[in-house]
Write a structure and sequence with these properties.
13 helices; Immunoglobulin-like; elongated; 5 domains; Rossmann fold; alpha+beta; eight-stranded mixed beta sheet; 688 residues; five-stranded mixed beta sheet; 28% strand
Length: 688
Amino acid sequence: MGFLVPLFFTALAVLGVPVLIHMIQRQRTEIIEFPSLMFVRKIPFHSLRRQRVRHLLLLLLRCAALALLIAAFARPFFRSAVLVAVTGGSREVVILVDRSYSMGYGNRWERARDAARDVVRDLAPDDQATIIFFDSGAQSGARSTRDRASLLAAIDTAELGAGTTRYGPALQLAQGIFEDSDQPRLEAFLITDFQRIGVDSAANTLLPPGTVLTAVSVADEDETPNVSVSGASVQRDFFSSRERAAVTVRLANRGNETVERQVALELNGQEFESLPVTVEANSSATLTFAPFTLEDMAMPVSVRAVADALPHDDVFHFTVAPGDIVPVLVVGGAGAADANRYLRTALAPGSSPSFSVTVRSVDQVTTADVAAARVVVLNDVGLPSGQVGAAVRRFVEAGGGLWVVLGENVRWPADNLDLLPGTFGEPADRDGRGGTLVFVDYSHPVFEVFSAPRSGDLTTPRFFRYRPLNVGPETAVLAKFDDGAAALAEHAVGEGRVLIWTSTIDNFWNDFALKVVYPPFVHKVVEYLAAYTSPTAYLTAGQVLDLAQYPGAVDLDVVGGNLVVRDPSDDRVAVGRDGRTGFIDLTEQGFYEIRDTDAADSASVVVAVNVDLAESNLERVDPQELVAAATGRAAGDRSVTTQRELEPEDLERDQTLWWYLLIGALGFLASETVVSNRLSRTELDADE
């Protein structure tokens, strides 16, 4: 036994008061003076009767009352777990139910909810329970409740999610509930299909000592093959002046049997084409649908396979927006066919974006060609004269991109030198093995793709000739040769951008065009000059959509507008705001529709959301392994419940023995009153 405030036992010294009262008896005497005795010597009188306890029962009652009162203030409690169980052995129970989309395989979800209901029905009257539903995150209802009806209602209304399995957040939430609990017994029930992909998230979570974790598996022993639509790609082209797209879909079979499926392509919710596909065991297959013409707005597209035991990964949603083609106008001089061919070949494989390359000689280019482009490349030619040159200048000032390649034949008009980042001189030769690039600004979008290890070595090309470029302090030099001369420089003109390359883009002055880094370099230069932003085809369930950063929502008034969001179930979704931007929690698979109702002419924005295909891997972990990692011991080991060390305040608060001691003290005081009254009357009768 322990005491919460043992200092109160110093008050036991007051037990001497009743003893003194009983040992010292004062008699009332009436003093009568006799004159004849005035000079008689006073002799002390000793009475043994007064020094002996006369009423032992009364003394014991008084001492017992004071002792119980002092013990009550000391707040006693039992430390023994056996006595704790007798005085208050209720449980703190946490029920963890997996709601990730892999639980939609067959009837796992219904079996999981039935298992949770069984746990609730088996709770003792004094047990407290909490239900936690988890996937990539965890959420609980009422904590530590004894209301069985609310627990069962939470189970009945729970819905399967679209997230992935993560055990860590759920176990951490349970850990917090257990640490805040004052119950002597802690027990958790983990109801899941025990997917291995979620184990790593629980690596640093350990439930409090004494916690019993019971594993309840709802996984199927014999699983049928699972085919998933693992992604899609879009190839674009122009037909009859209209942009078209052809979708190629990828399917993966994780089973040990060959599977045949019918796969449909849906446009705006309507089936466009359906094709059969055969996927070998533990393999993948691709399927290409017929091209379709794009609309003026982003089009919702779905690829749907015939549903199997796990339907969530049998569909893939995305959007296809028009304009993901960058028109490039290449203006070349006489004899520049080879230089144009290298550039055109490098841009041909582009898919996101695709590049529509138009090649014109300097004497054939028109103002219409310039107006139709987003990037103009002056390849070994100067600025065209007349109306075309003026159109190029207006094009750049309005936000267009201009790439000037300083080759052998470049002559620049003096009245437009401000279009360039500096003045250039006659070609300079590098003897021997030529020069190399020694400085590259890898933070710039043009070179950022090369910043990662093994992403391409820009020091391998050799440059045998280039044009010296004299730049001002306001000009950004993005790359330099080993002799300090500028290789690539940037200049802003109006709203547009101008890049100048001081060598050629073929194999005439260098061997850059023969290196593997040449195509990605050309792609990034053109993308940067076009201010290209890759469209977001889809997001993943569990992400938070920031409307201020989403490319399709640029026309929405995120701050002041009245945004209405509909989820795939056609329910209205609240838009969270922090004063500047709007956020949407993407919890479902399908298409979200966002509209600003204050702007009558604003079109709706469609956001496609898919499940994380990592959840399609149904490989299971041994439940004993996960339980051992979370508790530090094997599953089902209930002998350790006595090891839980509760704080003295928790033990004392749960047992409240001081109430019984206080009641006992009051009982003894009442008995003392009755006994003392009876003894007083008896002595009074005897004196009379």
